[in-house]
Specification:
single chain, alpha/beta, about 30% helix, about 20% strand
């Protein structure tokens, strides 16, 4: 596909996550529109974490692409898994504490699903896996973390870019994937499908005024 202007083929981020927007801006990819998908993210019966991450990323991208025909649409999802078990986005401190206890002293996987829908409607799905090991957490570690509130809205009940970084003994793979979006793979997908460098905004650029949030 030949290079086109951003006005002809806008880039839509199908996510409500401020972290994903910040990560894209960090590498000078400025979405024209931020339009969250608001889909049901409940795992299907017997669904494995790997499939959940890619299924939700594609479902988000497809849902938003129907609202923005002729646009590039990027959907993403992050799943934290201990073995075959998917850890939730905890709704309260009790659930967040249960996640942290599950992660304490062991390795877990962070699965990042991404889906890019081209202006013509064709979708491309990728999955990235990062391995994280937590130190053995003391009750005081968990209590202090819960009190800070960073667990809210985070898969697995923690944010690696915040205070929880002190829990991480090992990290193998993409750091940005653990934050919320694997940047290397996302940029490679965009550029490989024809989203030219000339379509990527200047460093520090933000979505145009009046776009959806």
């Amino acid at each position: 596909m030949p290079a086109q202007s951003r006005n002809v083929y806008p880039l839509v981020l199908a996510s409500a996550s401020p972290r994903r927007l910040e990560l894209l801006l960090q590498v000078a990819v400025a979405p024209d529109i931020v339009d969250p998908a608001h889909i049901d993210e409940t795992p299907e019966r017997g669904e494995l974490p790997d499939r959940l991450a890619t299924r939700l990323a594609e479902a988000k991208a497809r849902a938003v692409a129907r609202r923005h025909p002729g646009a590039w649409v990027l959907g993403a999802d992050t799943v934290v898994a201990c073995g075959r078990r998917v850890l939730p986005k905890p709704v309260d401190e009790l659930a967040a504490a249960a996640c942290l206890k599950q992660l304490s002293g062991r390795r877990h996987r962070v699965l990042g699903g991404i889906c890019l829908v081209e202006p013509g409607g064709r979708g491309h799905v990728r999955r990235v896996t990062s391995i994280v090991k937590f130190k053995r957490l003391q009750r005081s570690d968990i209590d202090r973390y819960l009190a800070g509130g960073e667990w809210r809205g985070k898969a697995g009940g923690y944010a690696i870019q915040g205070w929880a970084a002190r829990f991480v003994a090992e990290l193998h793979g993409s750091y940005s994937n653990v934050v919320g979006l694997p940047l290397f793979e996302t940029c490679a997908l965009l550029e490989g499908l024809g989203f030219r460098q000339g379509m990527i905004g200047p460093i520090g650029a933000a979505p145009a005024a009046g776009t959806a949030r």
